[in-house]
Specification:
InterPro entries: DD_DDX21-DDX50, DEAD/DEAH_box_helicase_dom, DEAD/DEAH_RhlB, DEAD_box_RNA_helicases, GUCT, Helicase_ATP-bd, Helicase_C-like, P-loop_NTPase. Its EC number is 3.6.4.13. Pfam families: DD_DDX21-DDX50 (PF26142), DEAD (PF00270), GUCT (PF08152), Helicase_C (PF00271). The chain is an alpha/beta fold. The chain contains 23 helices and 22 strands. Helix content is about 35%, strand content about 15%. The strands form 5 sheets. A 7-stranded parallel β-sheet has the order 5-6-4-7-8-3-9, with helices on both faces. A 7-stranded parallel β-sheet has the order 12-13-11-14-15-10-16, with helices on both faces. α5 crosses α8, α7 crosses α8 and α16 packs across α17. Adenosine-5'-triphosphate binds next to α7.
Length: about 750
């Protein structure tokens, strides 16, 4: 598939003054742009990197048109002449059956979507000798192209784009001086009038990728002349998003940046009163942002006139369509009288095939596609450490606080549950946590989200309502209580951390007997790091260090009052001074005893054991029958989480610590039976849910394909390697500090 660069496009035909020529020279030199997802700080690094732009298109006989220098040199007016009335418009009455869901709710469809075949092949880097040159800013008030500390031109500097002074200043006030790759790649194309499909990984700035060119087009570009102004004006822009929270967030961006160039916006979402929304619409606004359900309601009430529309945007399009909004979206888009005069933009981090097909009904045949994910294996955020941890449902509430303690680096944590009930229940069990889901009243949802954003509380337990698009500062840790049903959900949930070039950690809990994580691993391109739950002793060590710091800060003035009691204790306890002090630290950290935690189900006061007989175990029932040979039934019933090992030579399971001796002693009365406590989990068979049986291959061992070392790998310092689980944690709070995964600076 062809894949062409666009950075070098759009060479202005206008005469150039000296300053402009200089800028062109600089930008041409570095006119290529390539996303570098591994960069610790894209913003800082990209000015130093030689990067490349690409734009992918489908084969020439597809609906998508290649973006090449010839067509890019056409002015937007010329292009308009060639626009045909989209044949898809004829089909607009063919409604797809949609699942009925409440506006903004996190319902799931039965559709099992596959990740889309990437829209283009590898990016084509355009070298400096290209004949094509970058289009440069036509600002009269700037000081020339931005340079980084080395004095090298930064092709993505905001001043290199047709961004007006007011908008540049607003960006600068937000700390944005250069565009992210997806923004740089799509800016000119959108300003020049093309329909656009944009895909980049989570947290890579897709929102501004449509906000900025839309605002520029409306205030200084092609749509300025025909845009309606004045009281009661019909909107020029309609942005549709799947959830209320996301709609509000994007609305805020339009308020901030649109406000800077004199454009007004309003946000329409369910659960909020109609009246205030109606008043704004009647007064006239330039930009309407909303969820499909409520926007449709306003259309049906005659409150929105879409005849003057210049842009329509489908953000997180796949989720919106998955949620069953197809009919609503079609009805809304079908209200545009002449679709050929409206630019349609579609953005998401994930674009399953079926969405592409639906999208082709909404976008023009000559739409452009900018795909920063493309054929790359890794579809999820590469700035995130992706971890999986075996844990039974009943152990979750015990394990999660320790995961937070070990991996949140003191930042915010979002925990995803599959159901609204479990979100509420878990939030009730975790101190300082709040729940967010669709059964919570809209006003409370807003209070909760703003409390989380402002740091009033640091743990949010949410359903998928928070999975998409939410951009919250300093979210360091994502915990998924079980594997989501589809890979897109994994990608978006884990993408709530590691945003805008920062790093983060995503921990997914799974039950080895029930979950299939291989499918998510395969389809997301993530290489999961396998760890076992932080052991209470590890967590206690971290707490002990904190307690020591606290004690060191206690004023010496307390010593006289406590010294005699301390001396008395030292002389009578039979413990050394260090041992006694350890006890005092434990108490200060809130510990009076330390319980063990099993490796398999993460339950307290359980131990994980391995049963072997020298024979192959073809099913869990064989393991149970072996146990019954030498144990009474009531002991066999205490077994938890029995799972076969990946090599089929044994079974692992948890037994209550108090029964451990019975199990170990029992084996002696049974021939050829071995039971031993394991210190690290062996590789386990995974259940292949799609086939309703164990194992993914002929022999039933889905782990066969994974190479050795798949289960190795804690980066935190205690990796046990050799194909077994580590606990990935080095015993310090914020264990990741100081390395790639440390708390962001
Ligand atoms: N050019 C830029 N320079 C610095 N920060 C930026 C830039 N563009 C966007 N950001 C910031 O990056 C963060 C992520 O942006 P945004 O929410 O648009 O990502 P996204 O790609 O839409 O992610 P998702 O797929 O999760 O919705 C935001 O905080 C935004 O303010």
């Amino acid at each position: 598939m062809p894949s062409l660069a666009i950075a070098e496009s759009f060479f202005s035909e206008e005469p150039k003054d000296k300053k402009q020529k200089k800028k062109e020279k600089m930008a041409t030199k570095n006119a290529t742009l390539l996303e570098n997802p591994n960069s610790k700080s894209i913003e800082k690094k990209k000015s130093k990197e030689k990067t490349h732009k690409k734009i992918n298109s489908n084969p020439p006989d597809s609906e998508e048109e290649e973006l090449n220098s010839d067509d890019s040199q056409q002015s937007w007016l010329e292009k308009k002449k060639h626009k045909k009335k989209s044949s898809e418009q004829k089909d607009k009455k063919k409604k797809r059956k949609a699942v009925e869901v409440a506006d903004g709710e996190e319902e799931k469809s039965e559709t099992s979507s596959e990740l889309v075949e990437p829209l283009g092949s590898k990016p084509v880097a355009v070298n400096g000798s290209s004949k094509k040159k970058p289009r440069l800013v036509e600002n009269t008030d700037d000081e020339g192209g931005e340079a980084d500390a080395d004095g090298k031109a930064n092709p993505n500097a905001v001043s290199n784009f047709r961004i007006s002074k007011a908008l540049r200043e607003q960006l600068k006030s937000k700390g944005i001086e250069s565009l992210f790759p997806i923004q740089a790649m799509t800016f000119d194309t959108i300003v020049d009038g093309s329909d656009m499909v944009g895909r980049a990984r989570t947290g890579q700035g897709k929102t501004l990728a449509f906000v900025l060119p839309i605002l520029e087009s409306l205030t200084n570009g092609p749509t300025k002349a025909s845009r309606k102004t004045g009281y009661g004006r019909a909107p020029s822009v309609l942005v549709l998003l799947p959830t209320r929270e996301l709609a509000k967030q994007v609305h805020e961006d339009f308020e901030v940046y649109g406000g800077a160039v004199g454009l007004t916006s309003c946000c329409l979402y369910g659960g909020a009163p109609y009246q205030s929304q109606e008043i704004k619409l009647r007064r006239g606004v330039d930009i309407v942002i909303g969820t499909p359900g409520r926007v449709k309601d306003h259309i049906e009430r005659g409150n929105i006139d879409l005849t003057e529309l210049k842009f329509r945007v489908l953000d997180e399009a796949d989720e919106m369509l998955r949620m069953g909004f197809v009919e609503d979206v079609e009805l809304i888009l079908g209200n545009v009288k002449d679709a050929s005069k409206v630019q349609t933009l579609l953005f998401s981090a994930t674009l399953p095939d079926w969405v592409k097909q639906i999208a082709s009904r909404f976008l023009k045949p000559d739409k452009k596609t900018a795909d920063l994910v493309g054929n790359e294996k890794m579809k999820a955020s590469a700035n995130v450490r992706h971890i999986v941890l075996p844990c039974s449902g009943s152990a979750r509430s015990q394990v999660i606080p320790d995961i937070i303690r070990c991996y949140s680096s003191g930042g915010r944590t979002i925990i995803f549950t599959e159901t609204k009930d479990s979100a509420s229940e878990l939030a009730g069990l975790l101190p300082g946590a709040r729940a967010l889901h669709g059964d919570i009243q809209q006003s409370q949802r807003e209070v909760t989200l703003s409390g989380f954003r402002s740091g009033k509380f640091m743990i949010l337990v949410a359903t998928n309502v928070a999975a998409r698009g939410l951009d919250i500062n300093d979210v360091q840790l994502i915990i998924q209580c079980e594997p989501p049903r589809d890979v897109e959900a994994y990608i978006h949930r884990s993408g709530r951390t590691g945003r805008a070039g920062n790093t983060g950690v995503a921990v997914m809990l799974y039950d080895p007997r029930r979950s299939n994580i291989s499918k998510i691993e395969r389809e997301s391109g993530v290489k999961f790091e396998h760890i076992s739950a932080p052991q209470p002793a590890d967590v206690a060590k971290a707490a002990g260090l904190e307690a020591a710091e606290t004690i060191a800060r206690v004023s010496d003035s307390v010593i006289p009052a406590f010294k005699s009691a301390a001396e008395e204790l030292l002389s009578t306890s039979g413990l050394s001074a260090a041992e006694l002090l350890a006890k005092a630290l434990a108490k200060a950290a809130g510990y009076t005893e330390i319980k063990s935690r099993s490796l398999l189900t993460s339950m307290e006061n359980y131990a994980t054991v391995l049963l072997e007989t020298g024979q192959t175990f073809y099913s869990p029932s064989f393991a149970y029958s072996v146990l019954r040979r030498f144990l009474p039934e009531e002991k066999v019933e205490t077994v938890k989480g029995l799972t076969l090992t990946a090599d089929g030579n044994g079974a692992v399971f948890d037994v209550p610590s108090e029964d451990l001796d019975t199990f170990i002693a029992g084996q002696e009365s049974a021939a050829n039976v071995s039971i031993e406590v394991v210190k690290a989990l062996p590789r386990l068979q995974e259940r292949d849910l799609s086939r309703g049986r164990f194992g993914g291959g002929g022999g039933g061992f889905s782990d066969r394909r994974s190479g050795g070392g798949r289960f190795s790998g804690g980066r935190g310092g205690v990796s046990r390697g050799n194909g077994r689980f580590s606990n990935g944690f080095n015993g310090r709070r914020g264990a990741s500090n100081g390395n790639k995964w440390g708390r962001r600076s």
